[in-house]
């Protein structure tokens, strides 16, 4: 159950796009949203640092006030503005993770640059850090995301047991948003037990999914994220859903994964559980 949303906001065009997407999502879920703005005060002599902090906070409060006024002018009801705004201090990604706990967020919404490309830059290191470290689901929102055009949640599965267990949560979300579910699997190589696992996934879906229409997609690709990209390119209106692989060591935290690769390449919203 998603009752509390958290959206980092830095007044950029990308974060404004994400805000409008988030407000549409919020209304569908009937959730509360916390907007947070984090001040990264540059190091300076103690007296000057305090002055810088006060000036930055004053500017941020003025910008937040203007934002609220703008939202009141563009929403049809004050009830739609079921949100709070908070100013934090510190490193941005750590501030987001701290706020997730402090405001009991069920879902973290992260704006991103969203451009197609092959490097971490396009996702943004802060967004990547939050995806890696958050104990709550993270929804990555690219600048061209349009909530009103969404048709399906595309659940990219590796056919692991944890993927199957996640289906009920995906079904609950799809039902609240009025979307269908596509269960998609990209095979990088043939395995002897594929048919058995694929059948097991379908059987579980037919037994457990009640709120959304379900369809299935499976294809062979040498490269996992190219397979996902191909499907998304042919099927606009998708919201990609993936499960974050467990990471138990510092080394694992920086190792490439399917989740990370797709985030850098797909210019569609991506929800990571």
Would you give an account of this structure?
- The chain has 273 residues and is an alpha/beta fold.
- The chain has helices at residues 13-29, 46-74, 92-102, 125-133, 161-177, 194-208, 224-234, 250-253, 258-265, and strands spanning 4-8, 32-39, 83-89, 107-111, 138-141, 152-156, 180-187, 214-220, 238-242, 270-272.
- The protein folds into two domains: 4-141, 3-Layer(aba) Sandwich (Rossmann fold); 150-265, Rossmann fold (3-Layer(aba) Sandwich), CATH 3.40.50.12370.
- It has a ten-stranded mixed beta sheet with strand order 3-2-1-4-5-10-9-6-7-8, sandwiched between helices.
- Helix 3 runs parallel beside helix 4 (125-133), helix 5 (161-177) packs parallel to helix 6 and helix 7 crosses helix 9 (258-265).
- The longest helix has 29 residues, at 46-74.
- The model is unreliable at 114-123 and 246-256 (pLDDT under 50).
Helix/strand layout:
Layout: E1 4-8, H1 13-29, E2 32-39, H2 46-74, E3 83-89, H3 92-102, E4 107-111, H4 125-133, E5 138-141, E6 152-156, H5 161-177, E7 180-187, H6 194-208, E8 214-220, H7 224-234, E9 238-242, H8 250-253, H9 258-265, E10 270-272
Helix pairs in contact: 3-4, 5-6, 7-9
Which short descriptors sum up this protein?
273 residues; alpha/beta; Rossmann fold; 2 domains; 10-stranded mixed sheet; single chain; 9 helices; 44% helix
The CATH architecture classification of the largest domain is 3-Layer(aba) Sandwich
Tell the overall outline. elongated
Q: Could you please say which CATH topology of the largest domain applies here?
A: Rossmann fold
Cα radius of gyration in angstroms: 20 Å
Helix and strand run: EHEHEHEHEEHEHEHEHHE
CATH class categorisation of the largest domain: Alpha Beta
Task: Give the biggest beta sheet.
Answer: 10 strands, mixed
Total number of beta strands? 10
Helix content bin: 40-55%
Q: What number of domains? A: 2
Q: What is the average of the pLDDT values?
A: 80
């Amino acid at each position: 159950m998603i009752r509390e949303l958290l959206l980092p906001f830095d007044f950029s065009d990308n974060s404004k796009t994400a805000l409008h997407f988030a407000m549409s999502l919020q209304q569908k879920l009937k959730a509360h949203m916390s907007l947070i703005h984090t001040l990264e005060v540059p190091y300076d002599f103690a007296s000057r640092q305090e002055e810088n902090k006060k000036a930055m906070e004053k500017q941020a409060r003025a910008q937040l006030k203007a934002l609220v006024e703008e939202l009141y002018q563009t929403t049809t009801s004050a009830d739609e503005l079921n949100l709070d705004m908070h100013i934090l201090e510190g490193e941005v990604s750590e501030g987001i993770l701290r706020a997730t706990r402090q405001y009991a967020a069920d879902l973290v919404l992260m704006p991103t640059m969203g451009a197609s490309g092959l490097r971490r830059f396009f996702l943004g290191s802060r967004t990547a850090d939050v995806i890696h470290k958050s104990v709550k689901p993270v929804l990555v929102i690219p600048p061209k995301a349009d909530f009103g055009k969404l048709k399906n949640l595309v659940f990219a599965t590796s056919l692991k047991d944890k993927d199957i267990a996640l289906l009920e949560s995906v079904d609950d979300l799809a039902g609240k948003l009025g979307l269908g579910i596509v269960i998609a699997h990209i095979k990088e190589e043939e395995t002897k037990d594929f048919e058995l696992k694929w059948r097991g996934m379908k059987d579980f879906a037919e037994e457990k999914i009640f709120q959304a229409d379900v369809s299935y997609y499976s294809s062979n690709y040498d490269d996992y994220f190219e397979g996902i990209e191909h499907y998304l390119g042919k099927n606009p209106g998708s919201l990609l859903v993936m499960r974050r692989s467990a990471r138990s060591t510092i080394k694992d935290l920086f190792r490439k994964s399917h989740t990370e690769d797709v985030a850098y390449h797909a210019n569609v919203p991506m929800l990571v559980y």
